[in-house]
Amino acid sequence: MQADVDTAVRKRSTGGHYSPSIRAGDFVFVAGQTPRDAERRVVGATIEEQTAATIENLRVVLEEAGATLSQVVKATVHLANLSDAPRFDATYAGYFPDNPPVRTTVGSVLNGVLVEIDVIAFVGTATSRTEREA
Fold this sequence. Notes:
Layout (H helix, E strand, L loop, with lengths): L4 E2 L14 E4 L2 E7 L13 H18 L7 E8 L5 H11 L6 E6 L7 E8 L6 H5 L1
Parallel strand pairs: 4-5
Antiparallel strand pairs: 1-2, 2-3, 3-6, 4-6
Helix pairs in contact: 1-2
């Protein structure tokens, strides 16, 4: 059974055979984003710089799908080195200061980057994560 998917949001990735985002009902699913620019060059050398670049890439994909970072309810974070977690978290917290999304953080083998993040955003009628929890 296929989900009711808004195919206007389903855009082909320039880096592989997948969609950067898909809207299904009240949710936007965003594929893993990394700290790479439009020419696929790695942006930043530190975990802080790469985290910021990755979240900015998430912001762009979310906006193209009609969502914002404030609507993110779930994030999955892949770190090349789990010892970077505290420094990653300090940067990440700046983008999600209030009511941060639920998150899973795992150590992963990544292709030349320090971090990759995928997210799910809720774009339904509730205006905040707090309202959705009530």
